């Protein structure tokens, strides 16, 4: 494999002896039909890492698209890496295994490569994914700790249907004590990260402890104005003959994180997979960007900033 091709196929070793494809496709897509076409297009473009969640309300469509895409492409289940996530209303230990089994059934899988707690916030258990009081305030569940939930997730690994477990939307302060207490250490930590929110301290902690940082919003959720129009990114893109999206994705992989992107057309799937190593000076220039901006407040509240309108 030439160096030009290396970045897009990079796999990062995980602490369970397996590895995670660095460049991943995220399935947070509001429309069911688009979920199916976008997932198929991503597989065809070369993506082998698929990030799902119970809360996205489209695991069934992702499962359908993956089954059809694998068969059409002559691929097997072992050629892809699939993640899904435990929603906040299922943090009570007795709810973890049933929630996990529900995801497996909808995704048409026998096992997942990675199961994440979607956020560290427990919501009132029940069928309503967004429980609120009369004033619109979220109803949290104070009767369960993150460690209680984590232990139930560890049992899933023990039973063999889940190859690795991890956490999403967590701060370093919450992660550290969980990491210390965990019998099975988290393999992956998924958080918002891009040049305006590099999460350097968290990345260093992950590197020191053998966890993989998995970045979402690498393109700043496509917001305008934003990262895709940043003058430093635009100038580098012009200089290296790549698009701003390709530059941002390459930067994320080059700094050692895994990354998720959600192209919804075949052309963008090809574009977002076609990343190549940035010259060192361009990489350093991005590291020197001073703008700081968090786009998604989910890490503070457990309430997702971006959730499909239909579920
Ligand atoms: N753990 C969490 O709480 C959490 C939160 C958010 C996301 N995620 C995960 O992360 C995944 C990635 O989400 P993201 O929002 O960060 O995806 P993203 O790919 O960084 O951003 C998606 C936005 O960028 C645009 N876009 C994609 N490719 C582009 C390109 N080549 N040029 C210009 N614009 C482009 C899209 O526009 P179009 O729609 O017009 O194509 C869309 O508006 C999600 O699917 C999900 O799996 C997790």
Element pattern in H and E:
HEEEHEHEHEHEHEHEHHEHHH
> Could you state the oligomeric state of the chains shown?
single chain
SS content category:
alpha/beta
Q: What ligands does this structure carry?
A: NADP nicotinamide-adenine-dinucleotide phosphate
**Which percent range fits the helix content?**
25-40%
Report the β-strand fraction as a percent range.
5-15%
Mean pLDDT: 96
Gyration radius from CA atoms, angstroms? 19 Å
Topology (SSEs and partners):
Blueprint: H1 3-6, E1 11-13, E2 19-21, E3 23-26, H2 32-45, E4 49-51, H3 59-73, E5 81-86, H4 93-107, E6 114-117, H5 146-158, E7 165-168, H6 172-181, E8 188-192, H7 200-209, E9 212-216, H8 231-240, H9 244-254, E10 258-261, H10 266-273, H11 280-287, H12 298-301
Parallel strand pairs: 3-4, 3-10, 4-5, 5-6, 6-7, 7-8, 8-9, 9-10
Antiparallel strand pairs: 1-2
Helix pairs in contact: 2-3, 2-10, 3-4, 4-5, 8-9
Bound molecules: NADP nicotinamide-adenine-dinucleotide phosphate.
Explain how this protein is built.
The chain has helices at 3-6, 32-45, 59-73, 93-107, 146-158, 172-181, 200-209, 231-240, 244-254, 266-273, 280-287, 298-301, and strands at 11-13, 19-21, 23-26, 49-51, 81-86, 114-117, 165-168, 188-192, 212-216, 258-261. With 311 residues, it is of the alpha/beta class. The strands form 2 sheets. It has an 8-stranded parallel beta barrel with strand order 3-4-5-6-7-8-9-10, surrounded by 4 helices. Strand 8 (188-192), helix 7 (200-209) and strand 9 form a beta-alpha-beta unit. The protein is globular, with a radius of gyration of 19 Å. It starts with a helix and ends in a 10-residue tail after the last helix. The mean pLDDT is 96. Residues 26-28, 51, 168-169, 190, 216-219, 221-222, 228, 243, 245, 260-264, 268, 271-272, 296, 298, 304, 306 line the site of NADP nicotinamide-adenine-dinucleotide phosphate.
């Amino acid at each position: 494999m030439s160096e030009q091709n290396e970045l897009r196929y990079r796999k990062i070793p995980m602490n369970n002896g397996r590895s995670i494809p660095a460049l991943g496709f995220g399935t947070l897509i509001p429309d069911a039909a688009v979920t199916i076409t976008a997932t198929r297009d991503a597989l065809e473009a070369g993506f082998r890492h698929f990030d799902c969640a119970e809360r996205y309300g489209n695991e069934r469509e992702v499962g359908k698209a993956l089954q059809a895409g694998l068969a059409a492409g002559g691929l097997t289940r072992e050629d892809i890496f699939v993640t899904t996530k435990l929603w906040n209303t299922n943090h009570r230990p007795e709810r973890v295994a049933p929630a996990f089994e529900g995801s497996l059934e909808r995704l048409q899988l026998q096992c997942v490569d990675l199961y994440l707690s979607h956020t560290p916030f427990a919501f009132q258990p029940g069928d309503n994914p967004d429980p609120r009081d009369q004033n619109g305030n979220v109803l949290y569940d104070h009767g369960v700790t993150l460690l209680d939930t984590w232990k139930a997730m560890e049992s899933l690994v023990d039973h063999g249907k889940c190859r690795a477990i991890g956490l999403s939307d967590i701060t370093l302060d919450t992660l550290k004590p969980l990491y210390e207490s965990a019998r099975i250490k988290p393999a992956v930590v998924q958080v918002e990260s891009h040049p305006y929110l590099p999460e350097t301290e968290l990345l260093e902690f992950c590197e020191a402890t053998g966890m993989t940082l998995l970045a979402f919003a690498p393109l700043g959720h496509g917001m305008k104005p934003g990262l895709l129009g940043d003058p430093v990114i635009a100038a580098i893109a012009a200089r290296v003959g790549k698009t701003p999206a390709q530059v941002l994705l390459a930067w994320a992989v080059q700094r050692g994180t895994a990354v998720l992107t959600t192209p919804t057309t075949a052309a963008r799937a090809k574009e977002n997979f076609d990343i190549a190593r940035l010259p060192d000076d361009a990489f350093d220039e991005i590291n020197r960007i001073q703008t700081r901006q968090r786009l998604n407040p989910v890490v503070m509240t457990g309430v997702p900033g971006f959730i499909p309108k239909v579920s």
